[in-house]
Amino acid sequence: MVPVRRNTDSWLPEIFNDFFDNRWMERPTYTAPAINVIENEKEYDVELAAPGLDKDDFKVHVDADGNLHIEMEKKAETKESGKHGRYLRREFSYEKFQQTLLLPDDVDAARIEAKVEKGVLNVHLPKKEPVNKAEAVKQIAVQ
């Protein structure tokens, strides 16, 4: 006989909890991936922790307002094969993450590159070449 904790308000949930007790099972944690942003005189680099993911799991784009969007989506299914009968427990894993970063004005959006390497998504944001203010001044001939 399975020991059952009694609850005077309602006995059914306690029986269900005792029979299908799964407190020993690991609970997934839902946290956003860690992001590092590094700057030097020529560029910014964004690093996003992405263990187990590959390039097909990411979408990276810059919108019309100059925001960098990083989207990650990974679907995985764990099955027990060779079992006959119905599932009492079946686990699906689904991860989705989206981050939007406002790009600084000095980023050259046309030259942004992204790659996944060793479990890290690297987004390279080169800075625009500095414009010599003397060259930017346009002389207008008076007629």
What characteristics describe this protein?
single chain; 143 residues; mainly beta; four-stranded antiparallel β-sheet; three-stranded antiparallel β-sheet; 2 helices
Kindly state the number of beta strands: 7
* Strand order, sheet with most strands: 1-2-7-6
**Weakly predicted, low-confidence segments:** 4-8
The termini sit apart by 106 Å
Please summarize the sheet with the most strands.
Answer: 4 strands, antiparallel
The ordered string of helix (H) and strand (E) elements is HEEEEEEEH
Radius of gyration: 27 Å
The amount of beta strand, in percent, is 35-45%
The total of helices stands at 2
Mean pLDDT: 77
Helix content: under 10%
So what's the overall shape? elongated
Structural class: mainly beta
Write the layout of secondary structure elements.
Layout: H1 11-19, E1 35-39, E2 43-49, E3 58-62, E4 67-78, E5 91-102, E6 113-117, E7 120-126, H2 133-136
Descriptive overview:
This protein is mainly beta and 143 residues long. 9% of the residues lie in helices and 37% in strands. The strands form two sheets. It has a four-stranded antiparallel sheet with strand order 1-2-7-6, with no helix packed on it. A hairpin with a 3-residue loop joins strand 1 and strand 2. It starts with 10 loop residues before the first helix and ends in a 7-residue tail after the last helix. About 3% of the residues have low confidence.
